[in-house]
């Protein structure tokens, strides 16, 4: 299954690769081989990048799920106006080879959406969280706030977010993607118990990164 967020990119890539392949067919020798290999390789990688596997979210209502595939880059205590003074930040880094469709980490109502233009620092740069182009999302569920941010990177310069203020969302549902790499940061309040560690791999909508203490 391929993500609908990638349809335009896949179509454009197909046209470019078709032209490369046509040039290859009109050529000969090494040039022909190189052009045909480049066309097929580029198109196959584009299809691979926009893959969107079906996933079933855990049934546990207090589980906070990873919003992105990748690797836990950073876990630290922070103060945030949406989640409170004793919150925890979990940053997930996505490489070019991860699935890039983002999923809702916790069921609730969308109460905050804010897009920021910014720089395009490397996604693993800790300053990228506050300085890069990003989309901030905040949701509430019975007094439990969850704040997460799609952060663009040096390669990834296209953020897709299909959410609206007031919308009710379910944990594990797709809501957007960051095209070609980058990171996703999630900030949880003090009554969330983090159960992942730095360096751990995550699957969006499937890996439980924390539990809400009730």
Low-confidence stretches: none
Distance between the termini: 37 Å
| Number of strand elements | 14
Percent helix, as a range, is 10-25%
CATH class identity of the largest domain: Mainly Beta
Structure report:
- The structure is a single chain.
- This protein folds into two domains: 46 residues; 150 residues, Glucose Permease (Domain IIA) (Distorted Sandwich).
- Helix content is 21%, strand content 38%.
- The strands form three sheets. It has an eight-stranded antiparallel sheet with strand order 9-5-6-7-11-3-2-13.
- The longest helix is centred in the first third of the chain and has 21 residues.
- It starts with 6 loop residues before the first helix and ends with a strand.
- The mean pLDDT is 87.
List the helices and strands and how they pair.
Blueprint: H1 7-25, H2 29-49, E1 63-65, E2 70-80, E3 84-94, E4 101-103, E5 108-116, H3 128-131, E6 134-141, E7 144-151, E8 158-161, E9 168-169, E10 174-179, E11 182-188, E12 192-194, E13 201-202, E14 208-212
Antiparallel strand pairs: 1-14, 2-3, 2-13, 3-11, 4-10, 5-6, 5-9, 6-7, 7-11, 8-10, 12-14
Helix pairs in contact: 1-2
Give structural attributes.
214 residues; three-stranded antiparallel β-sheet; Glucose Permease (Domain IIA); 14 strands; alpha+beta; eight-stranded antiparallel β-sheet; elongated; 38% strand
In short:
This protein has helices at residues 7-25, 29-49, 128-131; strands spanning 63-65, 70-80, 84-94, 101-103, 108-116, 134-141, 144-151, 158-161, 168-169, 174-179, 182-188, 192-194, 201-202, 208-212. It is of the alpha+beta class. A hairpin with a 3-residue loop joins strand 2 (70-80) and strand 3 (84-94).
């Amino acid at each position: 299954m391929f993500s609908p967020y990638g349809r335009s990119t896949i179509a454009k890539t197909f046209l470019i690769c078709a032209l490369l392949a046509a040039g290859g067919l009109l050529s000969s020798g090494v040039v022909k081989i190189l052009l045909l290999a480049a066309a097929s390789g580029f198109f196959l990688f584009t299809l691979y990048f926009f893959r969107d596997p079906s996933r079933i979210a855990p049934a546990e209502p207090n589980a906070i799920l990873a919003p992105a595939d990748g690797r836990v880059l950073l876990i630290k205590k922070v103060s945030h106006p949406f989640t409170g003074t004793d919150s925890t930040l979990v940053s997930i880094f996505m490489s070019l080879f991860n699935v890039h469709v983002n999923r809702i980490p916790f069921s609730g109502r969308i109460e905050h959406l804010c897009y920021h233009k910014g720089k395009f620092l490397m996604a693993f740069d800790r300053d990228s969280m506050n300085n890069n182009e990003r989309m901030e999302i905040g949701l509430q569920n019975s007094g439990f706030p969850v704040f997460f941010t799609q952060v663009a990177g040096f390669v990834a310069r296209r953020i897709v977010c299909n959410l609206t203020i007031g919308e009710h969302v379910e944990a594990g549902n797709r809501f957007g993607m960051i095209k070609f790499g980058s990171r996703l940061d999630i900030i949880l309040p003090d009554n969330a118990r983090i159960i992942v560690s730095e360096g751990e791999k995550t699957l969006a909508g499937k890996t439980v990164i924390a539990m809400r203490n009730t």
